[in-house]
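Residues pack. One example:


***
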Amino acid sequence: MQSNAGNKRTPHAHRDPGPPRSGLQPLLVAAVLASASPGSRAEPAERWRIEAGPGLVTMPQYPGSRGELTWPIPMVDIEYARCFFLRTDRGLGAYFLDREDVQAGTSLWFRRGRFSDESSKVSALGDIATAVQARLFANYTAGAIRFGVDVARDFGGSSGVTVDANADWRFQIGPSLRGSVGAETTYGNSKYMSTWFGVTQSQAAASGLAEYAAGSGFRSAGPTASLTYAWDRRWTFRLRVAQDFLVGTAADSPIVDRKALPTAAIGVTYRFIP
């Protein structure tokens, strides 16, 4: 419910799991599609890094909802041979490029659906099922600035495609305290936008809402911030907040009660290995 470590990545560098922008609950899609060759890496082929702990995330029930959900979540960052991973923000996958300045990979995760009992606005529109999500991602770091892009394809739900782009500035506040500030935006294709923000003729007749067509375009944009405090080598406190706002045809949809999409995640992790 996105790491703020230093500028250089080392074999045991810390990476902040962070919450996913698409939503998070105690549900794990147990599948992995990626393969990569750890033999190209300088580290030993069999090297585990395990960091995990409890967390809490608060976010809108669905984009445009006035109601919010609060879930307990596991904050997890597990990595094998700097190749395969299980992370709270990206799911289960693998890196096919992992350098100090450039990182890219693929993973499976999920996008939470929208359900008719969550709001009177969507009660007659039918559910949008929770979807398995295949993702491609890439990050580029230049000094204290990091840029990232995630492309996600839903299998189920809207069967749509979204592109998330973000940039943040990472800085050291004190010996044990790090922070970041940045911005993010989400673009949706026509399948995604029409499913989540459109109202068909039959839905309009059933709900009393006006018929509405939501074409492809930017869905939302807004600022982000995070703090990471390391008590010692093992224990770390994490906080991340984001305040996205619906834009374009998404913001004008008749299903929208609120254009703001506030998200906050807080947690504590313990580093088991190394």
